[in-house]
């Protein structure tokens, strides 16, 4: 990487003010900034998290750290920054370097009036996918009085949004019991009635009976990983979920189907839904947050809304 891309990154971080809630400040993944494709920067309401997805030489890393220190010290918002953290996502365990300040490993952040607990420095992902902000907003707007199924729920961000939107009950399913434990904490942070939430720490394809028993559902959110060793491969296992929708949805039910792989198009979801669940029709694709620009829209996050044809 040359000095020019580094200068571009610093220009994007030279802000007059910082957001009042958690937010992505720089998104290199979208390939809109040559030479910076493997870098993202997130504002965690007091902490700046710079994530590197590719190894760089020590000289470049030293230059980056030096420039970040100068940037923080020169900005009008310097007093709001308690830590600058560099995370090496490409390395085993995704270790972090503390560039400035003192790390707060378990911060609580706000997004659209909702609170979420994060985990920094110990895990690859911090506990909240910021590019899904408008997806959570949509679920919140659609959940009043509804039973919601949240598949691959991770730390239950969609569930928190659904309960805040007035959902009658939400069922969260994820293989990671640790993620579900944090999901419970997220609900508690928002003062939610846990009697309206179920947490299933199971592998989906071995748990259809339990999932069906808690239904039927008015809204199903499907947000799987692109690949999970031994349990999920997107291009062959997504269909196994879609063909079950008839048994899980109410007659007027809706589905928010998501794909985060840059190699899988929105049309894949539309075609597979038509094949496996012909009772559903494609309604719309949700926009992505503007802070996540992408040179190719179909490479970015895809969140598609489907409604039952009888609706």
Describe this structure in words.
By secondary structure, the protein is of the alpha/beta class. The chain has two domains: 5-117, Transcription Regulator spoIIAA (2-Layer Sandwich); 130-308, Rossmann fold. It is 29% helix and 27% strand. The protein has helices at 3-13, 58-74, 133-142, 157-164, 177-189, 208-213, 234-242, 245-248, 266-276; strands at residues 23-27, 39-43, 47-52, 83-88, 96-101, 108-111, 114-117, 147-151, 169-173, 197-200, 217-222, 227-228, 232-233, 249-259, 280-285, 302-308. A seven-stranded mixed beta sheet has the order 10-9-8-11-14-16-15, sandwiched between helices. Strands 1-2-3-4-5 form a five-stranded mixed beta sheet, with helices on one face. A hairpin with a 3-residue loop joins β12 (227-228) and β13. α3 (133-142) runs parallel beside α4. The radius of gyration is 20 Å and the shape is globular. The model has no long low-confidence stretch (mean pLDDT 93). InterPro entries: SAM-dep_methyl-trfase (IPR019614), SAM-dependent_MTases_sf (IPR029063). This is Methyltransferase. Residues 24-306 form the S-adenosylmethionine-dependent methyltransferase domain. Keywords: Methyltransferase, rRNA processing, S-adenosyl-L-methionine, Transferase.
Taking all residues together, what is the mean pLDDT? Answer: 93
Helical segment tally? 9
- Proportion of residues in β-strands: 25-35%
Major sheet: order of its strands? 10-9-8-11-14-16-15
Given this structure, which CATH class of the largest domain is correct? Alpha Beta
Question: What is the CATH architecture annotation of the largest domain?
Answer: 3-Layer(aba) Sandwich
CATH level-3 fold name of the largest domain: Rossmann fold
Choose one word for the global shape.
Answer: globular
What structural category characterises the helix and strand content? Answer: alpha/beta
- Structural domain count: 2
The first-to-last residue Cα distance is 53 Å
């Amino acid at each position: 990487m040359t000095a020019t891309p580094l200068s571009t990154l610093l220009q994007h971080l030279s802000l007059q003010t910082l957001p009042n809630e958690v937010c992505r400040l720089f998104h290199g993944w979208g390939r809109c900034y040559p030479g910076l494709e493997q870098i993202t920067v997130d504002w965690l309401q007091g902490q700046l998290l710079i994530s590197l997805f590719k190894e760089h030489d020590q000289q470049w890393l030293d230059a980056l750290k030096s420039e970040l220190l100068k940037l923080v010290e020169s900005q009008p918002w310097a007093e709001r920054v308690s830590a600058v953290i560099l995370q090496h996502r490409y390395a085993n365990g995704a270790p972090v370097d503390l560039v400035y300040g003192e790390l707060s490993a378990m911060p609580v952040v706000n997004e659209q009036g909702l609170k979420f607990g994060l985990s920094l420095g110990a895990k690859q992902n911090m506990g909240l996918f910021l590019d899904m902000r408008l997806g959570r907003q949509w679920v919140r707007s659609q959940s009043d009085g509804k039973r919601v199924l949240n598949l691959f729920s991770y730390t239950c961000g969609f569930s928190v949004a659904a309960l805040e939107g007035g959902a009658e009950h939400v069922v969260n399913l994820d293989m990671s019991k640790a993620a579900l434990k944090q999901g419970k904490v997220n609900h508690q942070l928002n003062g939610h009635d846990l009697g309206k939430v179920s947490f299933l720490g199971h592998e989906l394809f071995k748990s259809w009976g339990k999932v069906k028993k808690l239904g039927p559902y008015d809204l199903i959110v499907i947000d799987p990983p692109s690949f999970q060793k031994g349990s999920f491969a997107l291009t062959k296992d997504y269909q196994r979920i879609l063909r079950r929708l008839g048994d899980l949805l109410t007659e007027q039910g809706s589905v928010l189907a998501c794909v985060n792989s840059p190699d899988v198009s929105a049309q894949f979801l539309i075609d597979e839904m038509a094949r496996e669940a012909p009772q559903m029709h494609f309604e719309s694709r949700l926009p992505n947050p503007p802070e996540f620009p992408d040179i190719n829209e179909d490479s970015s996050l895809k969140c598609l809304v489907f409604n039952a044809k009888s609706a």
